[in-house]
Design brief:
- By secondary structure, the chain is α+β, with helices and mostly antiparallel strands.
- The protein has three domains: about 5-70, 2-Layer Sandwich (Uridine Diphospho-n-acetylenolpyruvylglucosamine Reductase, domain 2); about 75-225, Uridine Diphospho-n-acetylenolpyruvylglucosamine Reductase, domain 3, CATH 3.30.465; about 230-335, Uridine Diphospho-n-acetylenolpyruvylglucosamine Reductase, domain 1.
- About 25% of the residues lie in helices and about 30% in strands.
- The chain is built from nine helices and 20 strands.
- The chain has helices at about 35-40, 95-105, 155-160, 170, 200-205, 210-225, 245-255, 270-275, 305-325, and strands spanning about 5-10, 20-25, 50, 55-60, 65-70, 75-80, 85-90, 130, 135, 140-145, 150-155, 175-185, 230-235, 240-245, 260-265, 265-270, 285, 290, 295-300, 335.
- A hairpin with a 2-residue loop joins strand 18 and strand 19.
- The structure holds flavin-adenine dinucleotide.
- Flavin-adenine dinucleotide binds next to strand 3, strand 8, strand 12 and strand 13.
């Protein structure tokens, strides 16, 4: 296992930020884990971070510890019962390629999640979701390694405690578990989810199949979201805030057009709408800004630093707080060293 020093992460984060890791290694095989863990144990003061596609990261600072780049590859059809087909993928598999591969195998269920960047192993971290579907809808179980002990454990759907852009691994025990494989159960009689704005129109008159829906989602996403290969970004930068019914009622009175969806214990509103109303769509400060077609997406137009993007994000948070009294929470993981 080769541990490199002062390794550039510029090509490994979709914001394209010029950050580095103090130490870095790539994990291609599970067998290599023992030596990485041993190295980490010999350097107990160093933090460890797992990295997939770097599409949900904002590096404000360099990472002062060890970055383990998860490259584990493998896909397998496990079998089926009366209702489901079971499929397993290793953590380092590219998410979108995996989705298309399941479609090539005649499976359905993941089509609405097409073209989300990143890896299979990171997908459960924030229970990725798009166009009315979340990862948890097709999730069966995952295998993860306890970084403290090396023990391998299986986690069921319930144990993962998936929520809106959230999971046990993101908010309860962040950094402890290295996800190594994920098993999905894909319905043999799928119920297509095509009600989401824009999807039905795109599919109008077509005979539905997982491939047709996936193609439609790809085309919608390509028309709305910046391609990180051209403009650095991490997708939606803020979560849609969930506010109390009382606050919602007060806001609805003042801003009748505000969108909202009932959630357990509150109302989810649109972060993009709030940001847009504050006049941020397409705004730019140096090379940090919001995408001109989508106010929720912060972008790096070229040479922005992580600090530039973070400062810009703080401006957005402050103005939404000032106008609506709603606190926006970033969706990506923000790497920032204590001052
Ligand atoms: C253009 C664009 C569009 C996007 N659209 C969506 C969308 O529609 N829906 C959505 O939900 N997200 C979206 N995202 C966000 C992002 O793609 C997802 O969150 C994705 O799952 C991140 O995967 P990654 O491999 O890049 O993770 P990384 O950014 O590398 O890591 C994210 C987090 O997961 C941890 N992690 C990574 N791998 C592992 C592992 N094997 N075990 C344990 N922890 C791990 C990291 O430490 C970090 O905390 C979008 C991003 C972009 C750039």
């Amino acid at each position: 296992m080769q541990i490199r020093e002062n390794y550039s992460l510029k090509g490994l984060n979709t914001f394209g930020l010029d950050a580095s890791a103090r130490y870095f290694c790539s994990l291609h095989k599970l067998g290599g884990l023992r030596s990485v863990m041993q190295w980490a144990q010999e350097h107990p003061d160093l933090a460890v971070m797992f990295l997939g596609g770097g599409s949900n990261m904002l590096f404000v600072d360099n990472f002062p510890g060890l970055v383990v780049h998860v490259r584990l590859q493998d896909r397998e059809m496990l079998g089926q019962d009366n209702d489901y087909v079971y499929v397993r993928a290793a953590a380092g598999e590219n998410w979108h390629e995996f989705v298309r591969w399941t479609i090539d195998q005649g499976c359905a269920g993941l089509e609405n999640l097409s073209l989300i960047p990143g890896t299979v192993g990171a997908a459960p971290m924030q229970n990725i979701g798009a166009y009315g579907v979340e990862l948890k809808d097709c999730f069966y179980e995952l295998q993860a390694v306890d970084w403290r002990t090396g023990e391998i454990r299986e986690f069921s759907l319930e144990e993962c405690r998936f929520g809106y852009r959230d999971s046990y691994f993101k908010s309860v025990e962040a950094g402890r578990w290295l996800i190594v494989t994920v098993v999905f159960r894909l319905p043999r009689n799928p119920q297509w989810k095509t009600d989401y704005a824009g999807v039905r129109e795109q599919l109008d008159g077509k005979e539905l199949s997982a491939r047709i829906i996936s193609d439609a989602i790809i085309s919608i996403r390509q028309s709305k979201l910046p391609n990180p290969a051209q403009i650095g970004n991490a997708g939606s930068f803020f979560k849609n805030p969930v506010i109390s019914p009382q606050q919602w009622a007060a806001l609805k009175e003042r801003f009748p057009a505000i969108p909202g969806w009932q959630q357990d214990g509150g109302v989810k509103t649109s972060a993009g709408w709030l940001i847009d109303q504050c006049g941020w769509k397409g705004k730019r400060d140096g090379d940090a800004g919001t995408y001109d077609k989508h106010a929720l997406v912060l972008v790096n137009h070229g040479e922005a630093t992580g600090a530039d993007v973070w400062r810009f994000a703080q401006g957005v948070i402050a103005s939404v707080q000032g106008r609506f009294g709603v606190e926006l929470e970033p969706e990506p993981r923000v790497i920032q060293n204590a001052a």
